Amino acid sequence: MRIFSGIQPTGRKHLGNYIGAIRQYVEGQTRGESIYCVVDLHATTVPYEPATLRKLLYDTTAILLAAGVDPDKCILFRQSDVPQHSELCWLLCSVTSHGELTRMHQFKDKSAKQKDALISAGLFLYPVLMAADILLYKTDEVPVGDDQRQHVELTRNIAERFNERFGETLVVPKHRIPEVGARIMDLQSPEQKMSTSSTNENGTVYVLEEPKAILKKVKSAVTDSGTEIKIADDKPGISNLLEIMAAIQGKKPADVEKDFAGQRYGDLKVAVAEAVVQYLAPVRERYNELRPDEKRIEEALATGAAKARAIAQRTLEEVWDKMGVGAPRMTRT
Ligand code: AQP
User: How far is 24 from 8, CA to CA, in rounded Å?
Assistant: First the structure.
């Protein structure tokens, strides 16, 4: 079984990324052949700072290593080191409709946020590049948070359409979205997901944040009217705190709700704040040990890229042959 997922080099990964995706990457290493990619090409689709992108990529890679992603147990690499991703993206554009891309929630949300900036064609094509990332590795399973559900669905449609049009070639992947913690919400606006691009810093807990800052943020999380600790649509703040606690403790949210029956909102906030601090502390400590050694990070990425290129090239050549592009196979060196 092959597992693939990509993560953006935004550097400051947050609790939602950690619970929704990163910890699934670690777990995936024991279940199948895991391939994880830090997607620097995706990062260029919104305004970004070229001078800091490489540094942020090292930060993100070091977070993955600190969390337990182990280059000896998986293939870990940087997207731009494997040019087959960009080429397959272009080829898959021929089986992707313009209409599908206009319906992607992420494109709608992110383009709406860039009122005065350029809305790049890259942002529009982002889901096709993501499909290429996944399909190049004949992936069976894609561990992601709930916000990526629609992109994985599109990837499936693209693979099916390619196979129908050109003959059975690509594996149609399934998403693996965790039952608990698939959508951690913003602590200040619990009707929105916790997000890197949130405008209010207090709503987002970062993996590398100091314990004092985490305690402050969680303790000042927005709660709801009433006093009962309960999972309910009209209690998004309390429901989110119960979900976070459940994800950390490996329980069902309903069981955490029972644990807190009769207690006050303040008690829940203190308990969740302390649990988050304890949960993230070992990752932060390990990150601090690993991050200074950029040479070692670069070596790990280069080793992963060599392995990834070999797999990716095989798929790309199959795609060329099916699509009738490039030189005939027997003439290739
Ligand atoms: N709030 C979340 N809850 C659970 N999972 C989440 N993910 C993102 N937000 C949540 C999952 O994290 C993985 C990596 O996401 P990414 O590479 O897209 O990282 P990002 O862009 O830095 O994270 P954001 O917060 O999604 O950024 P915005 O929204 O600002 O662009 C993915 O598997 C994702 O599902």
Answer: 16
